[in-house]
């Protein structure tokens, strides 16, 4: 009884603290949707004269179409290339030169991709004309001018990321440079210029070589996702298939931008030493310039239920690896909090069940962890387990140990103290995220994008507090079944890939 009272008391404290946190943040947060549909969030934090921001576009590699995989990521690179005013010595001249680049590339690409009747001499001539056009367009380029302006203004952490569900842009800046930031950030989405596109396409191709083709984990994950998903775009590599990277054009990228980079598909969160009453008119002045356009339609393809176990085996001259995943609902599903708790219980840190069993006690592995919401969370996704066997052990040696821990979750109630420990760690993780302006800006914009309300960031903690041992067993029993499982292994082989 005493343990129960302590647990109830801890839960009550957690509920109270969460409510206070949300109420405190609400007082300092202003949300406004502009007439063009763009959503702005300003959260005031005046501890230091700086601010951080995150621009989240509700489009990622899941929006890439067949033949254009990697295009969402490619446009992210283009967003740093400047505008019609930044990054050029003469935009009128450059615009004409870039148009010629696209004309010559379209002719070259059409000829080289002919399956029948391709004229190799003509291909070489068209390729030379295209490269000559690129050289002419490059004469107008002022390299990296956009980034240099941002750096000179005192910005730190300037970067971007393309995920399956969204694309994010972010950095931090001195508060007295706020208007400069608003101009620059709005300008690069109002007047983007696709300069140096094919040079940057080569950079992305090299990224693919490093992250996938030269990396056994990358090769395994790519094959795993292509096997786990038969229909949904989550099966596509975010960096793109090699043939698509070799063929898509700046014209394709412009079409992606026009469709998805519309104000109603963008959320911007600003956190720091910003007065909302003063900032909002300035934000409306700059971001209100983005022309109103229809929101892109939702994805049509829904992954059909998996009805049989799937298996991928890679033979590599590399460390053995083991990965298995199970289909689960999207993050907006009512059971999402339960999946989060199972993830923490099984695979988060040295106190997790997988680590204690496979690494500490049985010494079968040097790493045992998992992914929840993999590779994205907007759509039905995967709950996955990843294991790196220890020296002398193969991928097959860890299978029974992994499944034993999964069966425990399905067949035994989690003890009250272990469950409370997991919930405490979830809350501690949130506190760490909220501690930095940059982390908070990213979370606010992401939750607003995914759920339509930034407050869900706090409500998720409340939902986790309500997860019971019975919820865990129910969800685990429904999810972790062989017919819903996809397995990928890397087997060490002296001969390498077969």
Question: What's the arrangement of secondary structure elements?
Answer:
Blueprint: H1 2-27, E1 29-33, E2 39-44, E3 50-57, H2 71-78, H3 91-112, H4 120-138, H5 145-152, E4 156-162, E5 167-174, H6 178-190, H7 197-213, H8 216-228, H9 242-245, H10 250-260, E6 266-272, H11 276-287, E7 310-316, E8 321-328, H12 336-347, H13 353-361, E9 365-374, E10 381-389, H14 399-411, H15 416-435, H16 437-451, H17 456-465, H18 469-479, E11 485-492
Parallel strand pairs: 2-6, 7-11
Antiparallel strand pairs: 1-2, 3-5, 3-6, 4-5, 8-10, 8-11, 9-10
Helix pairs in contact: 1-15, 1-17, 2-7, 2-10, 3-4, 6-11, 12-17, 12-18, 14-18
Helix content: 40-55%
**Helix/strand/pairing class, anyone?**
alpha+beta
The CATH superfamily label of the largest domain reads Metalloenzyme, LuxS/M16 peptidase-like
Query: Beta-strand percentage?
Result: 15-25%
Number of structurally distinct domains: 2
Largest sheet: 6 strands, mixed
The rounded Rg comes to 25 Å
> Number of DSSP helices?
18
Low-confidence stretches: 1-20
What is the CATH third-level topology name of the largest domain? Cytochrome Bc1 Complex, Chain A, domain 1
């Amino acid at each position: 009884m005493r343990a129960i009272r302590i647990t109830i008391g801890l839960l009550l404290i957690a509920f109270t603290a969460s409510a206070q946190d949300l109420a405190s943040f609400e007082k300092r947060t202003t949300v406004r949707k502009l007439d063009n549909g763009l959503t702005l969030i300003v959260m005031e934090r005046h501890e230091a004269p700086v601010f951080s921001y995150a621009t989240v576009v509700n489009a990622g590699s899941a929006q890439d179409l067949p033949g254009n995989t990697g295009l969402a990521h490619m446009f992210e690179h283009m967003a740093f290339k400047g505008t019609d005013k930044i990054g050029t010595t003469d935009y009128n001249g450059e615009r004409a030169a870039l148009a010629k680049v696209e004309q010559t590339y379209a002719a070259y690409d059409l000829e080289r991709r002919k399956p029948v009747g391709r004229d190799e001499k003509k291909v070489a001539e068209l390729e030379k004309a295209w490269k000559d056009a690129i050289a002419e367009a490059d004469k107008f380029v002022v390299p990296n001018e956009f980034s240099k302006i941002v750096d000179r203004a005192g910005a730190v952490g300037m970067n971007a990321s393309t995920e399956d569900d969204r694309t994010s842009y972010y950095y931090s800046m001195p508060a007295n440079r706020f208007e400069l930031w608003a101009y620059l950030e709005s300008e690069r989405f109002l007047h983007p210029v696709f300069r140096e596109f094919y040079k940057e396409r080569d950079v992305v191709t090299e990224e693919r070589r490093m992250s996938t083709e030269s990396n056994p984990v990358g090769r395994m994950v790519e094959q795993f996702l292509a096997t786990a998903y038969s229909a949904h775009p989550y099966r596509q590599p975010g960096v793109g298939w090699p043939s698509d990277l070799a063929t898509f054009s700046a014209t394709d990228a412009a079409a992606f931008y026009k469709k998805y980079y519309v104000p109603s598909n963008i959320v911007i969160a600003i956190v720091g030493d910003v007065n909302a009453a003063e900032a909002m008119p300035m934000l409306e002045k700059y971001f209100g310039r983005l022309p109103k356009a229809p929101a892109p339609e939702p994805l049509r393809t829904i992954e059909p239920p998996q009805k049989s176990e799937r298996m991928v085996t890679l033979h590599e001259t590399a460390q053995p690896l083991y990965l298995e995943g199970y289909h689960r609902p999207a993050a907006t599903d009512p059971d999402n909090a339960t999946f989060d708790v199972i993830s923490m219980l099984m695979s988060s840190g040295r106190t997790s069940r997988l680590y204690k069993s496979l690494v500490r006690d049985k010494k079968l592995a040097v790493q045992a962890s998992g992914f929840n919401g993999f590779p994205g969370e907007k759509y039905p996704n995967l709950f996955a387990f990843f294991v790196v066997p220890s020296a002398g052990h193969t991928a097959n040696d860890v299978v029974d140990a992994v499944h034993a821990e999964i069966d425990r979750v399905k067949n035994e109630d989690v003890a009250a103290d272990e469950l409370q420990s997991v919930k405490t760690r979830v809350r501690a993780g949130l506190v760490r995220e909220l501690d930095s302006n940059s982390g908070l800006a990213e979370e606010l914009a992401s939750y607003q994008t995914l759920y339509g309300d930034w407050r869900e960031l706090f409500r998720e903690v409340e939902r986790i507090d309500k997860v019971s041992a019975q919820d865990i067993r129910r969800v685990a029993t429904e999810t972790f079944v062989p017919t819903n499982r996809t397995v990928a292994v890397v087997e060490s082989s002296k001969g390498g890939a077969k």
